[in-house]
Amino acid sequence: MGNKHSSPVLPNQSRDQRIGVNTNYDHSAPVSHISLRYHKSQAPLLKSTSSHDTLLCEKPPALPHNYHPNVTHLPLTLTTYTPLTPSISRQDAEARAYSAFLKSFPEYQSTWILDTLRRTDFARLDRTGETYVDYMGGAQHPESLVRVHSAFLTESVMGNTHSVSNSSKLSSRYADEARDAVLSFFRAPPGYTVVFTANATAALKLVGEAYPFKFNNGYILGADSHNSVHGIREYASRRGAEVHYIPSTSTGGFVLSTAKDILSQHRPQNTSSLFALTGLSNITNAKNPLSIIGFASSLGYHTLLDAAALAPSSVISLSETPVDAMVVSFYKMFGYPTGVGALIVKESFLEILERPWFAGGTVDVVQVPGSIFTRASVLHEQFEDGTINFMTLPAVTDGLRFLSAYLPFLPLRLSCLTHYLVVSLSCLRHDSTGTPVVNILSKLPSRRLESAGEQSDSGSTISLIFLSASQLPLFYYRHLNETLDCSLQERLIPNSFIEHVAVSRNISLRTGCMCNPGGAASLLGIQDQMERLYPGVTLKDFERVVGRELGVVRISLGLASNFQDVWNVVMFASSLADSRTRQALWDTWTNVPIGQAV
Fold first, then answer.
1. How much is the pLDDT for 590?
2. In its UniProt record, which GO terms are filed under biological process (predicted)?
3. Predicted local confidence at residue 57, as pLDDT
4. CA 215 to CA 435: how far, in whole Å?
5. Count of H-run helices and E-run strands, the chain
6. Which stretches within 211-299 are classed as H helix?
7. Confidence label for 155 from pLDDT (cuts 50, 70 and 90)
8. Confidence (pLDDT) at 313
9. What letter would DSSP give residue 494?
10. Is there a contact between 313 and 281 (Cβ–Cβ < 8 Å)?
11. Residue 514 near residue 520, CB atoms below 8 Å
12. Residue 273: which of 263, 281, 282 has the closest Cα?
């Protein structure tokens, strides 16, 4: 009838010993001390002798006559440990750009261990010629993680955790190990537990449906949030609670003083209210200060952190930021497995939640017929509906160990690549008019990182729009967006065209609003049109009002990103600066014999 089971330690060899990892998640530990079986100790990092030259905004080099974005132009030595000055032909535009990049960003040398990782765990990116720049959508899986997990499944007999058989005990043991690994990775103090869910969205829904919203309390959130955070407002409003938004700036996020004013204005009075914070926007690249969690808590709010976009490249310590609940999706952190997320939550917060139903696995006794039931005695089991994804939880443990080894180097690497990409794209000009090719809308980092272990004040996402050299054909836009400068509005190139060209060049990027309508509206300056929406409105209706396709082009970097990826993106954008190339691509996309000038 219930969910009683035990999780004794089995006498067989521990998984830690089998895969050879250190379970102490000290993010400053050398990589050789935290490694999977397939990752041996790496060579010591090289010392730079390059000067801190400033990256100049020069005209991008002309495309080589034999250039193709899907062909690797550099010798393989560039993706391994090599001297900072590659011994390659000075006639190679990419090689010259790489040498200039290293001179401008000598700190990049400290992250070359990630080039070895790219060469081993992510070699398929180079084999297939795919330039993957959609890490905000999902990380690429390391091949060694899949091999380790496949070998584990081959050797193990796993069973449903809701039993006491040997196979069930084994599954329960590794589920408990995964819980401990999650708590350790996020440096959670005693009093926290982990509820496994399908993803971060499911974890947010779990909080929203069970939080005790009522007539005299409220829900406070930022406009620049994911739809899964916005969706909680439906639970709040249906129970009579008030919903209040913290407005977004033009580049996303919020002004800290404004957020504090709104929280203070609606502070709970003899009741509880919920404040949801987006750690990192998935479209505006704005990283909100986690310090506001402590401020909200001091006013009596319960706090909820959406860390789905933040966790893959930032160190999060729940000891330093004791939020009541935090949600993550593991595929965004290390690519595999998909279909598993987590609610990392204070047990005291779980105890106040009021679940609207019960399910298999969450109860101990159920009266049938009748209305009596008793929930499971273990707190996290009361929130894990049905059977957890026990077959993949061992991969979560290994994935966290994998990521912890490289996380100290990642912010510095992404800082170098993001700065280079921003400068390079901003310098592009159309050959016929000298006007910019792109307009970067998202928040840019305010400072450049200098050493491994530092944390950035923004993410590594660039949201932008592409601009034509002249006015677009009249059939494309029927109504002008009054919030944008008309000359700019008339030069916006359709995102669907950009995506079409990117696909043809084997570049995986993303276009649209990224399930973040508030952030997108802020970047595009369409908040007024957003306010005029009506019940039943469709996306096509909205686009008719705005006068164009909605959304941006998003380029996001991650664990496996290297210089060649950003170079390919720059060359892709450069090709649209060339009038002949752009016209030919437009004609192919519109499928007309005589194209309209773009």
1. 86
2. molybdopterin cofactor metabolic process
3. 52
4. 55
5. 22, 15
6. 227-230, 232-238, 256-265, 291-298
7. very high
8. 97
9. P
10. no
11. yes
12. 263
